[in-house]
Write a structure and sequence with these properties.
Stationary-phase Survival Protein Sure Homolog, Chain: A; about 25% helix; homodimer; alpha/beta; two-stranded antiparallel ribbon; 11 strands
C-alpha cells in the first residue's frame, strides 16, 4: 500500500515544540512534507503575501525529513507547498499546529493555524487544525499527539466532504483525564478587549492589544462546553460565510433601489 | 433627531480614492469617524497585531473630519476606534471600503476590507463591506457611492440580525447600466494560483504570488452570477464557520477513541 502524503504546517513557526509533536504523529501515518513559517505568525488570520516576494528555504529543523521554512504567512506556506514544491500534486492530508493555545470558538477567524487548514480545504485537501489549550512553550504535547494521531487516522480512512476542515482543540489535561472526542459547533463567544497605552523610549505613544475571552454561549453542543468537560472538541468547518438565516430577512433591500427619496438625499 | 455615528475604515489605506467616496456617502447620513491603515493592507484577512505595538495618529487626509491613521491591520483599526477613540461607545454603523477590486465569493476570507466589517459585527455593530469590481486607482466610484448610500440607509433604518455583516460588491458599469440590488449567497469559486519564481538583485531566489479566479458555481443565487448580470450583489455574512452538514456525517469520530488498533500504531 502506498503511504499517504501528509503536509504539515503551523503558525507558531518551524521551531515551535507544537509542530514537532505533530510531525512525530504524522510520521507514524505517512510520508511527511513540512512547510512552516520561519518566524511566529500568530494572529495572522487568512493573510496572504501579495505585495512582496516570499522566500522558501530547505530547513534543518527536522533531521532527515523533507522540511522547508518560508518567510510568508501560514496560508502562503500551504500555497507554496502545493504549487511550488509538489508542483500541483495534492497531499492526501494537511495538518496544522499543534498550536500553542486555544483556537476554539471564534478564534478560528484570527488563527493562522486554522487559516492554513482552511486554505488546504479550499484546494480540496482534507485538512485539520490542532490546538492545545496551553500557551506554555514547554507544554506537554503528548496527550494532544495521541488524539492527533487518532483523528488523522479517521480522516485518512473515511475522507471528508469537499471543502471541509476540522478545528480540533485539546484540553490541558493528562491523557487519562481526557473524556474522549466530541463533535461540536463553534461557540458564539467574544473577545472583550482593551489596549494598553504606553510610551516608547522616544516618548511616542503606542497601543498594545490585550483582552480576555467571554463566553455567553454555554450550550452543550459547543466546542467551549466540550473542552470544559474535558473532551477533545472537533468542529467541522468550512469557508462559506453566508448567513442563510439573514438572507430572507433582508430581502427588502432588493426593492429599495428605485425609491425616490434616496436620489433626493 | 440625533445623527447616527458611522465608523469608516478600509484596507487600501487612508489615502485611497475608495475610502474618500465612502466617506462622502457616509457624511450624508451621519457623523463620521474615520480610522484607516496608514498603508495598504490588502490580503491581510482577519490578521490582528498581537506581538507588536500599534501607532494611532490624527490624520489630515480628510479636512474638517475626525480621522485617524493606524499602523495596524484593518481589524486593528476597528478595535482601536471602538476601544480607544470611542471608549467603548458603539457606532451605529461600520462601513469598510470602497475596496479597489472585487471581494465577492471566497475573497471575503482573504479581504482586509471584509475582515474589518466582520470585526465590527463581532462587536455587535451593524456593518457593511463595499467593493468595486475595478482595481484602477482612478476608477469611477460614483455608481458605487450611490448604492453605498442606499444600502447604508436601509441598514440604519431596518437594522440587522446580531452578528450579521453585508458583503456588497458593485459591478464596473455606469449607474444607468446597473440592474439593481440582489441578495445572494457566496459563490463557491476558487483561486487557481501560480508563483512567479525569480531572482533578486543579489541572486537570491524568491516567489511572488499570482493567480486567476475560476468559478464553477454558476447558480443564479450566487454573488458572482448577480455581478455578471449587472446587479449589485449583497451577501449577508457571519462569523460561524461550522459546517453543519458535515457535523452529522462525521459522528463516527466520537466512537473511535477506544479503538485498540490506534494505541498499537
Amino acid at each position: 500500500m502506498k503511504k499517504p502524503l501528509i503536509l504539515v504546517t503551523n503558525d507558531d513557526g518551524i521551531t515551535a515544540p507544537g509542530i514537532r509533536a505533530l510531525v512525530e504523529a504524522a510520521q507514524l501515518m505517512g510520508d511527511v512534507l513540512i512547510v512552516a513559517p520561519d518566524s511566529p505568525q500568530s494572529g495572522m488570520g487568512h493573510a496572504i503575501t501579495i505585495n512582496a516576494p516570499i522566500r522558501l528555504h530547505p530547513s534543518r529543523a527536522f533531521e532527515g525529513l523533507n522540511a522547508y521554512e518560508c518567510s510568508g504567512t501560514p496560508v502562503d506556506c500551504v500555497k507554496l507547498a502545493v504549487k511550488v514544491l509538489l508542483k500541483g500534486r495534492q497531499p492526501d492530508l494537511c495538518v496544522s499546529g499543534i498550536n500553542h493555545g486555544s483556537n476554539a470558538s471564534i478564534n478560528i477567524i484570527y488563527s493562522g493555524t486554522l487559516s492554513a487548514a482552511m486554505e488546504a480545504s479550499l484546494e480540496g485537501i482534507p485538512s485539520i487544525g490542532f490546538s492545545l489549550l496551553d500557551y506554555a512553550y514547554d507544554a506537554d504535547f503528548e496527550p494532544a499527539k495521541y488524539f492527533a494521531l487518532q483523528i488523522m487516522q479517521y480522516v485518512l480512512k473515511q475522507s471528508m466532504p469537499y471543502g471541509n476542515l476540522l478545528n480540533v482543540n485539546i484540553p490541558r489535561r493528562p491523557l487519562e483525564a481526557i473524556q474522549g472526542i466530541k463533535l461540536c459547533r463553534q461557540a458564539d463567544a467574544r473577545w472583550v478587549e482593551e489596549f494598553v497605552e504606553a510610551e516608547d523610549p522616544r516618548g511616542q505613544k503606542y497601543y498594545w492589544l490585550t483582552g480576555r475571552f467571554e463566553n455567553n454561549d454555554l450550550a452543550p453542543d459547543t466546542d467551549l462546553w466540550a473542552l470544559e468537560q474535558g473532551y477533545v472538541s472537533v468542529v467541522p468547518s468550512m469557508h462559506d460565510l453566508t448567513n442563510y438565516k439573514a438572507l430572507e430577512m433582508m430581502r427588502g433591500l432588493e426593492y429599495m433601489q428605485s425609491s425616490p427619496q434616496i436620489a433626493a438625499v
